[in-house]
Design goal:
Layout lengths: L13 E7 L5 E13 L4 E7 L4 E6 L3 E6 L5 E2 L2 H6 L6
Antiparallel strand pairs: 1-2, 1-5, 2-3, 3-4, 5-6
Length: about 90
């Protein structure tokens, strides 16, 4: 017997980030998002940085470009994109 169940769509969790560090140097990072926390003027992203294979925290305001790896959609405002993400709390 086959039963189809409508699951709510999961939020995208894997991204490619173009990130500007504290020295204004750009790096590309593949990143799996675990948590996104909104602060007064910022969204703090925590997850797995595949470049370092470590848990890392990034500031959404420093994300120059974000690509959703599930859909290929590209967004050029990381802060606005992550403010609307379903994981933001």
């Amino acid at each position: 017997m086959h039963i189809e169940v409508d699951d709510p769509p999961a939020p995208p969790l894997a991204f490619h980030l173009i990130y500007s560090d504290g020295k204004n140097q750009l790096t590309g990072r593949c990143f799996t998002l675990w948590n996104a926390r909104e602060e007064i003027a910022e969204v703090r992203l925590t997850g797995l940085c595949h470049m370092r294979s470590l848990r890392r925290t990034f500031l959404a305001s420093r994300v120059v470009e974000v690509t959703d790896l599930a859909t290929g959609e590209v967004h050029d405002d990381g802060l606005a994109f992550f403010r609307q993400h379903p994981l933001v709390r």
